[in-house]
Amino acid sequence: MPGLDHxxxxxxxxxxxxxxxxxxTPRRFAPEINLKIxxxxxxxxxxxxxxxxRYVEWVSNIVPMMKKNEKLRVCIDVRDLTNATPKDEYxxxxxxMLIDSAAENEILSFIDAGNFLxxxxxKKRIAIDKSKADTILALFAPKSxxxxxxxxxxxxxxxxxxxxxxxxxxxxxxxxxxKSDSQFEWTNEHQQAFESIKxxxxxxPIMTNVRPHEALKLYIAASINTIGFMLAQDDEDGHEWxxxxxxxxxxxxxxxxxxxxxLKLIIGSYILMDRSTKMVQGLKFLxxx
Length: 289
Known about the structure:
With 289 residues, this protein is α+β, with helices and mostly antiparallel strands. Helices cover 33% and strands 17% of the residues. It is built from nine helices and ten strands. The chain starts with 30 loop residues before the first helix and ends with a strand.
């Protein structure tokens, strides 16, 4: 980035000892796309974000991506380079952890004001970005397996806001397992579940960030096929706010014995407590069967 001294920050990629450089075969683009790519490349060169390199060993293709404002983003196909780099021994922070960390601060830098990873982040509250919810609300009933998968992917990204999501989406499981769209059949049951999720998202709850050193409440609900948890906490005025929703469909083996259900309850409890990344001084368990 222009203006930043290399002694302050510099990033280098480590390569596997046996990695061999790859020069990808150039891709062809439509003339109108080529023009936009050229304009964006020239803009980046002028801004000194990139520079021309000669006699390089690695050559990766450009991957043009259209942004929401209909301008072109120039990305790079890094699949060959990714395969040549060693894997980290630790996991990258998941979105929920990043959002929780951001919610503790009054100022968010390098992002839109308050908008972070498609969520609206306040100092004490976290909400779904309206445009993200509107995208799902505008969807028509899926007509193929791919459209069902796309719908479930969008909804699953917002799972921390949706109570009992696994039970609501369980009806779509057979549609995801079909081998061809000739087997696709959208029934009234699918439509009802589809509309129910959209209705819920139209008035999705606002979540709270965990207050350190204050008691947490863990609500647990289990049925024959699903298990769900809600982590909650009272604010300074004694009003209860949801922190996380976590739920999962039980497999056939898990539904056969009480031991599996008990284990799921324990694991789910620890996951929720770990995700809060705060000290837990009190838990309130409510189990409904």
